[in-house]
Amino acid sequence: MVETAQSREVEKRMMEPVVQDYLDASLKLEADDFCSQVGPVLVSLAPALGPTFQTASTEMFQGKTSRRRNQLDHRLPVMELGRNSRHGFDELRLGRSEDNHLVVSDETVSARHARLFQVRTSGAIFIEDLDSTNGSTLNGKPLLPGRAVELADGDLLGFGDTFFLFYTPRGFHRALRRLAGQAAP
Length: 185
Hints:
Number of helices: 4
Helix content: 10-25%
CATH architecture: Sandwich
Strand content: 25-35%
CATH topology: Tumour Suppressor Smad4
Protein backbone atom coordinates (compact mmCIF):
# COMPACT_ATOMS: atom_id res chain seq x y z
CA MET A 1 0.00 0.00 0.00
CA VAL A 2 1.37 3.41 -0.98
CA GLU A 3 1.28 5.97 1.79
CA THR A 4 0.11 9.39 0.63
CA ALA A 5 0.39 12.79 2.27
CA GLN A 6 -3.38 12.68 2.81
CA SER A 7 -3.26 9.28 4.54
CA ARG A 8 -0.40 10.47 6.78
CA GLU A 9 -2.45 13.56 7.70
CA VAL A 10 -5.53 11.46 8.55
CA GLU A 11 -3.40 9.08 10.66
CA LYS A 12 -1.78 12.01 12.48
CA ARG A 13 -5.16 13.63 13.17
CA MET A 14 -6.57 10.34 14.51
CA MET A 15 -3.79 10.29 17.12
CA GLU A 16 -4.42 13.87 18.30
CA PRO A 17 -6.46 14.28 21.46
CA VAL A 18 -9.97 15.60 20.86
CA VAL A 19 -12.42 17.47 23.10
CA GLN A 20 -14.12 14.17 24.04
CA ASP A 21 -10.84 12.98 25.59
CA TYR A 22 -11.01 15.86 28.10
CA LEU A 23 -14.75 15.73 28.72
CA ASP A 24 -14.71 12.81 31.17
CA ALA A 25 -11.92 14.40 33.20
CA SER A 26 -13.82 17.70 33.40
CA LEU A 27 -16.88 15.88 34.77
CA LYS A 28 -14.93 13.78 37.30
CA LEU A 29 -12.58 16.49 38.54
CA GLU A 30 -13.25 19.78 40.27
CA ALA A 31 -11.82 22.81 38.51
CA ASP A 32 -8.63 23.05 40.63
CA ASP A 33 -7.75 19.38 40.09
CA PHE A 34 -8.49 19.62 36.35
CA CYS A 35 -6.33 22.76 36.08
CA SER A 36 -3.41 21.02 37.80
CA GLN A 37 -3.44 18.35 35.07
CA VAL A 38 -4.23 20.34 31.92
CA GLY A 39 -2.43 23.34 30.48
CA PRO A 40 -3.82 26.13 28.30
CA VAL A 41 -5.22 24.75 25.02
CA LEU A 42 -5.92 25.61 21.41
CA VAL A 43 -8.97 23.79 20.05
CA SER A 44 -8.83 23.40 16.27
CA LEU A 45 -12.09 24.25 14.54
CA ALA A 46 -11.44 21.59 11.89
CA PRO A 47 -12.97 18.25 12.97
CA ALA A 48 -10.45 15.45 13.53
CA LEU A 49 -11.42 13.57 10.37
CA GLY A 50 -13.21 16.37 8.54
CA PRO A 51 -12.10 18.96 6.01
CA THR A 52 -9.02 21.10 6.57
CA PHE A 53 -11.02 24.26 6.02
CA GLN A 54 -14.22 25.30 7.74
CA THR A 55 -16.64 27.80 6.28
CA ALA A 56 -18.13 30.13 8.86
CA SER A 57 -21.91 30.12 8.80
CA THR A 58 -24.19 33.10 9.11
CA GLU A 59 -27.69 33.34 10.43
CA MET A 60 -30.35 36.04 10.53
CA PHE A 61 -30.92 37.62 13.94
CA GLN A 62 -33.58 40.33 14.31
CA GLY A 63 -33.19 41.39 10.70
CA LYS A 64 -29.38 41.48 10.81
CA THR A 65 -26.84 39.00 9.52
CA SER A 66 -24.45 37.88 12.24
CA ARG A 67 -21.62 35.36 12.44
CA ARG A 68 -22.49 32.45 14.69
CA ARG A 69 -20.09 32.04 17.61
CA ASN A 70 -17.86 29.01 17.13
CA GLN A 71 -18.50 26.42 19.80
CA LEU A 72 -16.87 23.31 21.16
CA ASP A 73 -17.71 20.00 19.56
CA HIS A 74 -16.74 16.53 20.85
CA ARG A 75 -14.67 15.76 17.71
CA LEU A 76 -12.46 18.86 17.60
CA PRO A 77 -8.69 18.32 17.98
CA VAL A 78 -7.01 19.85 21.05
CA MET A 79 -3.42 21.08 21.32
CA GLU A 80 -2.17 21.58 24.86
CA LEU A 81 0.28 24.46 25.19
CA GLY A 82 3.30 23.65 27.32
CA ARG A 83 2.05 20.09 27.79
CA ASN A 84 5.45 18.88 29.04
CA SER A 85 5.81 21.57 31.68
CA ARG A 86 3.77 21.81 34.86
CA HIS A 87 4.67 25.48 35.06
CA GLY A 88 3.35 26.54 31.68
CA PHE A 89 5.65 27.70 28.91
CA ASP A 90 7.78 30.69 28.02
CA GLU A 91 7.29 30.83 24.26
CA LEU A 92 5.79 28.61 21.56
CA ARG A 93 6.12 29.25 17.83
CA LEU A 94 3.30 28.24 15.53
CA GLY A 95 3.61 27.70 11.79
CA ARG A 96 3.82 25.27 8.90
CA SER A 97 7.53 24.45 9.37
CA GLU A 98 8.43 21.30 11.31
CA ASP A 99 10.80 23.29 13.55
CA ASN A 100 7.87 25.05 15.27
CA HIS A 101 6.50 23.94 18.63
CA LEU A 102 2.98 23.84 17.13
CA VAL A 103 2.92 22.68 13.50
CA VAL A 104 -0.14 23.60 11.42
CA SER A 105 -0.41 21.70 8.12
CA ASP A 106 -2.12 24.36 6.02
CA GLU A 107 -0.60 26.11 3.00
CA THR A 108 -2.15 29.44 4.08
CA VAL A 109 -0.10 29.32 7.29
CA SER A 110 3.42 30.74 7.04
CA ALA A 111 6.47 28.66 7.94
CA ARG A 112 6.88 30.79 11.09
CA HIS A 113 3.47 32.41 11.46
CA ALA A 114 2.97 33.50 15.07
CA ARG A 115 4.20 33.05 18.60
CA LEU A 116 2.42 32.57 21.89
CA PHE A 117 4.18 33.50 25.09
CA GLN A 118 3.33 33.44 28.76
CA VAL A 119 4.29 36.04 31.34
CA ARG A 120 5.46 34.00 34.34
CA THR A 121 4.55 36.58 36.98
CA SER A 122 0.91 36.97 35.93
CA GLY A 123 0.31 33.79 33.92
CA ALA A 124 -1.15 35.93 31.12
CA ILE A 125 -0.76 34.49 27.61
CA PHE A 126 -0.14 36.68 24.58
CA ILE A 127 -0.25 36.15 20.81
CA GLU A 128 1.99 37.94 18.31
CA ASP A 129 1.95 37.68 14.51
CA LEU A 130 5.47 37.17 13.12
CA ASP A 131 4.85 39.22 9.94
CA SER A 132 3.14 36.23 8.32
CA THR A 133 2.07 36.34 4.68
CA ASN A 134 -1.67 35.80 5.28
CA GLY A 135 -1.81 37.41 8.71
CA SER A 136 -3.29 36.41 12.05
CA THR A 137 -6.62 37.44 13.51
CA LEU A 138 -8.02 37.65 17.03
CA ASN A 139 -11.81 37.42 17.15
CA GLY A 140 -11.94 38.39 13.48
CA LYS A 141 -9.72 41.46 13.79
CA PRO A 142 -6.27 41.50 12.16
CA LEU A 143 -3.25 41.46 14.46
CA LEU A 144 -0.50 43.94 13.72
CA PRO A 145 2.81 42.13 13.12
CA GLY A 146 5.17 42.42 16.07
CA ARG A 147 2.46 43.69 18.44
CA ALA A 148 1.51 41.23 21.20
CA VAL A 149 -2.09 41.02 22.41
CA GLU A 150 -3.29 39.26 25.58
CA LEU A 151 -5.61 36.28 25.09
CA ALA A 152 -8.82 35.52 27.00
CA ASP A 153 -10.92 32.37 27.29
CA GLY A 154 -12.90 31.59 24.15
CA ASP A 155 -10.87 33.90 21.89
CA LEU A 156 -10.99 32.90 18.23
CA LEU A 157 -7.51 32.84 16.69
CA GLY A 158 -7.03 32.77 12.93
CA PHE A 159 -3.80 31.86 11.16
CA GLY A 160 -4.33 32.06 7.40
CA ASP A 161 -7.43 29.92 6.82
CA THR A 162 -7.01 27.87 10.02
CA PHE A 163 -8.90 28.74 13.20
CA PHE A 164 -8.57 27.80 16.88
CA LEU A 165 -10.34 28.61 20.12
CA PHE A 166 -8.04 29.50 23.02
CA TYR A 167 -8.75 28.44 26.60
CA THR A 168 -6.94 28.66 29.91
CA PRO A 169 -7.28 25.45 31.96
CA ARG A 170 -10.10 26.94 34.08
CA GLY A 171 -11.88 28.32 31.03
CA PHE A 172 -11.56 24.96 29.25
CA HIS A 173 -13.05 23.21 32.30
CA ARG A 174 -16.03 25.61 32.25
CA ALA A 175 -16.51 25.19 28.48
CA LEU A 176 -16.39 21.39 28.77
CA ARG A 177 -18.95 21.44 31.59
CA ARG A 178 -21.23 23.63 29.45
CA LEU A 179 -20.79 21.21 26.56
CA ALA A 180 -21.83 18.34 28.84
CA GLY A 181 -24.82 20.31 30.09
CA GLN A 182 -23.46 20.75 33.60
CA ALA A 183 -22.70 24.22 34.84
CA ALA A 184 -19.22 24.55 36.31
CA PRO A 185 -18.88 26.33 39.65
